[in-house]
Structures are given as structure tokens and as C-alpha cells.
């Protein structure tokens, strides 16, 4: 513990004596002992020193008064005046000026060397520094132990680490990632820059992670170490989520492709914590290709904590038990969260069904819905297109390729926009006027293009049966 003027005066070996009336800083920790014989020591002081002098250059009352004022301005805790050298006693003008400026004066007798005072202060500072280092090391060990022990038993030691940090700093802590709370010791806390200190936590990912500490708090260097442990744990969690999502994605991929017998698929679904006997639904997230890598290991907001996440063929999927709540509200929550993370996402919601086939239907519903491009796309009644896509027995993609291949080839060679014309015609229920207005074309041009489509594909968009074929082909191409 740091030493004070009171401690020095109470030490019988030093034989120091307090003079004057000021006691303002006698309990202030002394940060150093400065021995000086210059008339103006202020440029050489940084504050909180005990200034020792024999007054060798303080022969006049004016010089003594100036000396006191300069020491006061420097922020020293007191003046120790050595007697028996140039002065038999501490000069009265110096004591009077010290009383005026409220700075303690201590007489240091001839038999007490300045070095003895300096050594006591230095030893106290050294002991304090050692105690601080020992406390910091113990804190480091406690934080690391809380992280490692919890990781071994629960799989994630972040809550344990943050709870330990909370007790060490003596205040509430909140950890946010993508503006969503990962941990909070204070329910409903909303950290702000006025009452909380934000501590950015780097993880090597673009995840905008911030540790908030409510003011005031104790630090002593432990926060920096906690930040490094949090950073390490978050990076490890990212890797675990990424690996787990690819493993789950392989299972979901087999479900969607009906690649295994029903009994095997059910067992594998249970292996990734999906109960096929219960109703499950799927959220499908579509993002721009350059943003997709951010999804592979991103933490989901706590509201979706019951979800099983998977990465399948460039798509991010969340499988949720139907009992967790309103899926549309959860999809909105997920969409806001991803947009806050800088990931523009379109979330499609599938219906809730049981068994592997039901999960497959939910997937194609969610996929078809996400294609509408809104932030959140609510499920619609299972369409004929989705049913056919969900069936591996119907070669829908081959049919679509065979049907539309001639149009794609013709458009590529001639820039004829036949595909756009067909899509607009089917979308607008076969209205020539509406298509002409939508594409800024003359009606005769629309008729001519429809004739080309019929000639190239063999299907007449004006005939109901052929129109269904063309609609299915376009839908399959859109979803694949």
C-alpha cells in the first residue's frame, strides 16, 4: 500500500516533525520523493511528490516564499526541510507561506538522511506494485478458469466468464454482438455512452462486438485481459457454429433429396436435435453472394436460440419447433438482426409439418416465399410447384431445362427478351395490353414474341395446359 506523510511522521526511526498548520494532504499517497536544491523546482515535478530540500539556495525570505508557491503549483503533497545544513531551523517565512497555501511542512533532522525517507517511500511503492501484479495475475487466472471449466461442462464458458468479470469490476456488464445482447447481468439494460463505458471486442470477424461496463467500476487492468478472452471465445464459437452448420446441412441436404430410407433420416434428424415426430418449420435466408460467408458462423439472436441452423448449397436455414412461437415474428426479428449486422437478407417462412417429408415441404415453401424478395416473406398455401419440387420422383429441373432451353439459347444469340416477355405474360394473366405497358412495347410486338415462344418451345402460352407447363418451368428455374 502507498505511504503517506502521516505514515512517515509515525515512523519513530525517522524522527520527523510536522510544522505549520496545514494537514490537507497528510493522507495523500506519496508517488515519489524528489530531492532538490533549485529555487524553482516546478518544471521537474509531476505531482504527488514529497519535495525534500536543505534550502541551500533559499537564503532570503522572498526566495523561500517563491519556493513554496512553486511546489504548491506543481501539486506536491508536502515539503520536507532538512535542518543542520544551511539552516539550523526551518525558516519562519517558509512555514508561514506554506500555511497560507495549505501545504504541509515537515522538519527532517540532520541525523535523518534524505535517502532513508526515499527508501521507505520506494519500498512502499514497490510492495504496492507487487500486490497489484499479484492481484491482476489472480484475476487473470480466475477469468481463465471460469472460461475453461464452463467450456468443459457446458460447451460455452462466456456467461461464466462475464459473471466472474462482473464480480471483479463491481458493476453490471452487457455483451452485445450485432446490436443484440449475448449476455446481460442487468435485465432490460439499455447501455448508452453517458452511463456506460463501451469496450470494442475484436474477433477477426465483422461482428461489431461491444462489452459495456456500467460506470463507475473497478478496473486495475482486468478488463483488457477479459476482452482478450472474450475475443478468443467468440472466435472459437464462430468456428464451432460454422462446423456444426455444415454437419447439420449435410443431414438437411439428405432430407431434401430423400437420399436415405425414412428410418435412417429420422435417426439423423434426432442426431442434430430435430425431433421429426413434432411439427417443425423452416426459415430460409437469402443474401447476396458476397455476404453469405458472414452467415456461416454468425450467432443468432437469443429469440431464435431454440433453432437448429444449417448451411445447404449456399442457403442458410433455421429449423424451429412450431411450439416456439409465431414464426413470422421470429423471421422479422431475424431479418432486423441481420440488417443490423450489415447483411441485407430476405427471409422466407415455411409451414409447420411433421416428419422428414414435412420438413421438405416447409423448405420449398420457404424457398418459394423468399423469392418474393421482401425482408420477411410469409408462407402461402403449399403450391403445386412446391409439391412437385419436393418430390424427388418428378424430374422438374430436367423438364424446365428442356422446355425453356430454346428460349434461353435464342435470347443469348439475338437479345430477343423472350424469357422476360413470357414471365410478364404469365404474371399478368395473359393480358396483351398489360404486358405491352409493362415492357414498353407495342401490342403487335408482344404478339410476335408470343408466336416465337410457341414456335421455339412447342407450347402456346394462350392455351391453358401449355401455360401451366410454361409456368411450372419458370417457377422451377427461379427456385434452382
TrEMBL record:
The UniProt entry, under Gene3D superfamilies, shows: PucR C-terminal helix-turn-helix domain (1.10.10.2840)
Give residue ranges for domain CdaR GGDEF-like. Answer: 264-370
List the InterPro entries. Answer: CdaR-like_regulators, CdaR_GGDEF, PucR_C-HTH_dom, PucR_C-HTH_sf, PucR_dom
All copies of the Purine catabolism PurC-like domain together span: 7-124
Q: Pfam families this protein is in?
A: GGDEF_2, HTH_30, PucR
**Domain PucR C-terminal helix-turn-helix stretches:** 418-475
Query: What is the similarity comment for this entry?
Result: Belongs to the CdaR family.
PANTHER family linked to this entry: CARBOHYDRATE DIACID REGULATOR, PUCR FAMILY TRANSCRIPTIONAL REGULATOR
> What's the protein here called?
Purine catabolism regulator
Protein source organism: Arthrobacter russicus
Amino acid at each position: 500500500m502507498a505511504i503517506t506523510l502521516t505514515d512517515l511522521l509515525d515512523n519513530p526511526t525517522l524522527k520527523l516533525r510536522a510544522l505549520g498548520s496545514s494537514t490537507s494532504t497528510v493522507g495523500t499517497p506519496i508517488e515519489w520523493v524528489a530531492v532538490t536544491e533549485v529555487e524553482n523546482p516546478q518544471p521537474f515535478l509531476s505531482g504527488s511528490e514529497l519535495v525534500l530540500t536543505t534550502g541551500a539556495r533559499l537564503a532570503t525570505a522572498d526566495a523561500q516564499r517563491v519556493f513554496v508557491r512553486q511546489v504548491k503549483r506543481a501539486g506536491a503533497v508536502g515539503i520536507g526541510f532538512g535542518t543542520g545544513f544551511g539552516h539550523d531551523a526551518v525558516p519562519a517565512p517558509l512555514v508561514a507561506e506554506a500555511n497560507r497555501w495549505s501545504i504541509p511542512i515537515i522538519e527532517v533532522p540532520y541525523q535523518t538522511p534524505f535517502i532513508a525517507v526515499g527508501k521507505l517511500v520506494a519500498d512502499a511503492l514497490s510492495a504496492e506494485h507487487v500486490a497489484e501484479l499479484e492481484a491482476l495475475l489472480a484475476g487473470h487466472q480466475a477469468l481463465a478458469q471460469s472460461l475453461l471449466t464452463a467450456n468443459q461442462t457446458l460447451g460455452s464458458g462466456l456467461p461464466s466468464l462475464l459473471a466472474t468479470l462482473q464480480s471483479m469490476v463491481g458493476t453490471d456488464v452487457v455483451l452485445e454482438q450485432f446490436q443484440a445482447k449475448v449476455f446481460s447481468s442487468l435485465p432490460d439494460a439499455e447501455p448508452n455512452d453517458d452511463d456506460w463505458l463501451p469496450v470494442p471486442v475484436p474477433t477477426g470477424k465483422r461482428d461489431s462486438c461491444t462489452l459495456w461496463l456500467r460506470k463507475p467500476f473497478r478496473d486495475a487492468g482486468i478488463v483488457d485481459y477479459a476482452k482478450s478472452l472474450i475475443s478468443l471465445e467468440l472466435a472459437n464459437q464462430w468456428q464451432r457454429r460454422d462446423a456444426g452448420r455444415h454437419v447439420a446441412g449435410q443431414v438437411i441436404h439428405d432430407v431434401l433429396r430423400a437420399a436415405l430410407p425414412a428410418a435412417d433420416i429420422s435417426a439423423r434428424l434426432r442426431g442434430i436435435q430435430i425431433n421429426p415426430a413434432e411439427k417443425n418449420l423452416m426459415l430460409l435466408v437469402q443474401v447476396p453472394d458476397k455476404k453469405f460467408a458472414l452467415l456461416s458462423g454468425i450467432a443468432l439472436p437469443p429469440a431464435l436460440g431454440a433453432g437448429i441452423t444449417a448451411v445447404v448449397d449456399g442457403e442458410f436455414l433455421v429449423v424451429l419447433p412450431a411450439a416456439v412461437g409465431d414464426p413470422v415474428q421470429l423471421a422479422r426479428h431475424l431479418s432486423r438482426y441481420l440488417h443490423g449486422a450489415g447483411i441485407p437478407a430476405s427471409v422466407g417462412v415455411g409451414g409447420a409439418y411433421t416428419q422428414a417429408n414435412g420438413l421438405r415441404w416447409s423448405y420449398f415453401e420457404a424457398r418459394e416465399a423468399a423469392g418474393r424478395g421482401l425482408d420477411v416473406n410469409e408462407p402461402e398455401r403449399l403450391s403445386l410447384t412446391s409439391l412437385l419440387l419436393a418430390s424427388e420422383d418428378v424430374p422438374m429441373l430436367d423438364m424446365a431445362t428442356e422446355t425453356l432451353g430454346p428460349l434461353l439459347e435464342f435470347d443469348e444469340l439475338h437479345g430477343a427478351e423472350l424469357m422476360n416477355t413470357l414471365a410478364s405474360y404469365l404474371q399478368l394473366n395473359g393480358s396483351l395490353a398489360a404486358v405491352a405497358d409493362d415492357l414498353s412495347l407495342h401490342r403487335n410486338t408482344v404478339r410476335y414474341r408470343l408466336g416465337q415462344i410457341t414456335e421455339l418451345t412447342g407450347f402456346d402460352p394462350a392455351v391453358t395446359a401449355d401455360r401451366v407447363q410454361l409456368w411450372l418451368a419458370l417457377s422451377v428455374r427461379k427456385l434452382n
